[in-house]
Design goal:
about 210 residues; 6 helices; binds magnesium ion; alpha/beta; binds uracil; transferase; Upp_B; GTP binding; nine-stranded mixed beta sheet; Uracil phosphoribosyltransferase; about 30% strand; binds 1-O-pyrophosphono-5-O-phosphono-alpha-D-ribofuranose
């Protein structure tokens, strides 16, 4: 189990735009995908490669490729969608599943409403994505769901994580590595991460 805060000047710089309440939807979307792309570099460091022979203009040589079935990306709807493009830009062979879970605003409990996964999901490493890890309820629900589908290798990729949410996921799923661009201070009385960036889904899709 690992909890990794991906510290990089480019990520910290871009995160500032996402935090800023005056950032418009277009810049918010673009920047979130850019950070997701940068974080993909870190999350995929341990991926296993296949050795193949390739012919350069000069000679034959051994080289390495990612097997086609290596990765699936599963965004937690809606906000997770905001990171998918940035990830699959770097892993074009990744299949994309969707799991719909929203958080009840009063109870803060996850409410399930949709799922569609690639048929061979159990054979792949799953990058489960959601920009916000707050109480950890949505992440835990989605991880439970994926495990029931037979997935064995899951990594959770978030943008901002609250210490409470990290603790809850680590407790329930100690085998799942968590990557985040920033571990924030905590959760306020409404269950929002502070300082945070507000409601990620609303900011991506302009719904408020
Ligand atoms: O860790 P938790 O306490 O479960 O909170 C985090 C969840 O809340 C947000 O989704 P939201 O319910 O706002 O749905 P949306 O993505 O459709 O806006 C966020 O994108 C996570 O999925
Ligand atoms: O701060 C938070 C907490 C949950 N969901 C969000 O989008 N933001
Ligand atoms: Mg939301």
């Amino acid at each position: 189990m690992a909890v990794v805060e991906v510290n990089h000047p480019l990520i910290s710089h871009k995160l500032t735009f996402l935090r800023n309440k005056n950032t418009d939807t277009k810049l918010f979307r673009e920047t979130l995908n850019e950070i997701a792309g940068l974080m993909t570099y870190e999350v995929t460091k341990g991926l296993k490669l296949e050795e193949i022979e390739v012919e350069t203009p000069v000679m034959k040589t051994k080289s390495y490729i990612l097997p086609d079935k290596a990765v699936a990306v599963v965004p937690i709807l809606r906000a997770g969608l905001g990171m998918v493009e940035g990830i699959i830009t770097f892993i074009p062979t990744a299949k994309v599943g969707h799991i719909g879970v929203y958080r009840n605003e009063e109870t803060l409990k996850p409410v399930y409403y949709y799922c569609k996964l690639p048929e061979d999901i159990a054979d792949r490493k799953v990058i489960l994505v959601d920009p916000m890890l707050a109480t950890g309820g949505s992440a835990n629900y989605a991880i439970d769901y994926l495990k029931k589908e037979g997935v064995k290798d899951i990594v959770f990729l978030s943008l901002i994580a609250a210490p409470e949410g990290i603790a809850n996921v680590v407790k329930k799923h100690p085998d799942v590595d968590i990557y985040t661009a920033k571990i924030d201070e905590g959760l306020n009385e409404k269950g929002y991460i502070y300082p945070g960036l507000g409601d990620a889904g609303d900011r991506i899709f302009g719904t408020k």
